[in-house]
Please model this.
Amino acid sequence: MIGIFVFLAGITMGSFFHLVGERLPVKRSILFPRSHCTACKQPLSLPKMIPLLSYAMLKGVCKHCGTRLSLLYPMVELLSGSLFLLMYKIAGVSFEGLFLVILCSLFMIAVVSDLLYMRVPNELFLFFFPLFVIYRTLEPLLIWWEGAASLLFCFLMFYSLERFKPNSMGGADMKLFGVLAFCFGFKPFLLILFLSCISGMVYAKVFSFRLDEPFPFVPAISFSFWLYLCGAYIILPFTGSTG
Ligand SMILES: [Zn+2]
Model:
């Protein structure tokens, strides 16, 4: 029963993540105006704002102008619902669960921004990073300095990469890796980095990007991070550790 509630909360938050990811990079207010059709600017009426259901009710087209609505809306909503459920299964109703929800919120918004604009605004990191610092101060990793040390290692690694091969990775991608290094420590960071490179290559291949041209890499990082969480969920009952 709680699972259903968590899933519904997730899809509702997903609709908000899409809105923030779409509006923050172009400095539009996230409070006003209400969600509207991007083609004809007609606001969506209240029942049409219910996540997932609205897309199904409208059959994916705006009823005013017939423009096809982006598939990204229902996908972000469905994914957020599923992730919230996964995190609830991993951590239950706990402080750690709240931390995972906040972390996934950052990634979800970053995915939308990166897909739509190929950039993630700094404001997002400035808002979220202090929350992770507070959490890791109250709930440190097994070795309390590992988060800070991994963050430093991550910084030096990408700094060297920039010197050696400039612009090979986007600023937002490095910051997201920094967040993961800080929150989870060395091993999970390196594992997610490795998975991201593989899924990034697959992603570029599927969507026909050349590997030497910029393409949105945040979805690959996020996918790898969620894969890591799923893995932690499967292994967790046996080892009792996320590291
Ligand atoms: Zn329209």
